[in-house]
Amino acid sequence: MEACLFCKIAAGEIPARIVYRSERVLAFEDIRPQAPHHILIIPREHYASLEEFPEDGGSLLAEVLLAARAIARERGISSSGYRIVLNTGRDSGRRSSTSTSISSAAGG
Question: pTM of the full predicted structure?
Answer without folding.
Answer: 0.84
